[in-house]
Amino acid sequence: QQQVKQSPQSLIVQKGGISIINCAYENTAFDYFPWYQQFPGKGPALLIAIRPDVSEKKEGRFTISFNKSAKQFSLHIMDSQPGDSATYFCAGEHTGNQFYFGTGTSLTVIP
Amino acid sequence: DTAVSQTPKYLVTQMGNDKSIKCEQNLGHDTMYWYKQDSKKFLKIMFSYNNKELIINETVPNRFSPKSPDKAHLNLHINSLELGDSAVYFCASSQAGQALTFGSGTRLTVV
Question: What per-residue confidence (pLDDT) applies to A1?
Fold first, then answer.
C-alpha cells in the first residue's frame, strides 16, 4: 500500500510565487522525512529533510512544515524560480533504512 | 569523484536477453539499494543490502537477481528481459538514519 501520499501530482507556479507540496503518512514508526528533487535525466537528490521532533526546518528558499499529530508534512518553495522546475518526492524512513516515497510532484515555474 | 556510480547509463536490448547493471559507491555507506522508476516517475524499492546481506526483497520477479560482492558494490542481473522491464533503474546507498544518495540511473529499453 502507499505509505506516503503526495499531492498535487503537478503544479504550475509563476516566477516569484510560492510552491507548496503536501505529503501525508500512516506509519508512526517513520522518524526521518526527506524531500528529494529530480531533474530530467538525473537521479533524485536530497533537498532538505526533517525529523519529527521539530515542526519546521528552513534552508534558504526551502521550508519543511511538519505536523506530527496530523501525520502530514509539506514543502514550501519561496520565490520560486524557473530553475526549480523539477519533480519533487517526499519520503518517510524508519529504522532499518527502509524508505517509502510519495508518488512525486512535477513542478513547472513559468518565467 | 562520483559518490554512487552505475553503468551503463543506457541499455537497449531485445526481449529474452540477459543483462547486468553495475553499481559502486565510495561513500562508505553500509546499505545499498535498487529502485525502479517507471514512466509515471514512481520510485519503487526492489532490493536492499546491508553489508552484503539482503534485507529487503520486494515483490520482484525472480528474473531479477541482485549480487553484492562487498559493501561498496551492488549489481543487478536481469534474465529473460520483457517489454515491461523497460524503466529507469537507480542504485542508491545510505548510512543508518541518513538520506539516500542516488546514482544517475540506467535507462533500460527492451525492444
Answer: 64
